[in-house]
Amino acid sequence: MHSIPKSHLDLFDIPTLWHVATIGPNGEPHVSPVWADFDGTHIKFPHKLGRQKWKNLQSDTRVSLSATDPENPERYLEIRGKLVGWESEGALDFLDSMAKKYRNEEQFPREHASPIEDRVTGIIKPDKCTSMG
Asked: Where are the domains of the chain?
């Protein structure tokens, strides 16, 4: 596993939007913003079953994430890796923790989380990192 540079780990501590790129069924790129966290080993992001990113990652687990420091647009981190799984247990709790980090809300609005059983957490194993700034 390639370690994420210590100089850029703080991007996971602040409410930085991460752009996740996946590969579609015909080889086309798909990019969308997500909330994300790093547990020291894996990158985690909340997601919902059936969306395009989820569909893409079913057939090709390669993924790239990037974020730009909101205080310094010339400082960024790009991470390439692979999806190693989807966790359903604890997914709503993780989503709530992300709502606290990104919105300062105690819980993610339930009307936007339903059906709750479709909520999962994507688990990414980082393989390569590029950073600047």
From this structure: 6-132
Q: Identify the band that residue 1 occupies on the pLDDT scale cut at 50, 70 and 90.
A: very low
* pTM for the model: 0.90
State the architecture of 6-132 in CATH terms. Roll (2.30)
DSSP states of the chain = -PPPPGGGGGGGTTT--EEEEEE-TTS-EEEEEE--EE-SS-EEEEEETTSHHHHHHHH--EEEEEEEETTEEEEEEEEEEEEEEEE-TTHHHHHHHHHHHHH--SS--HHHH-SGGGEEEEEEEEEEEEEE-
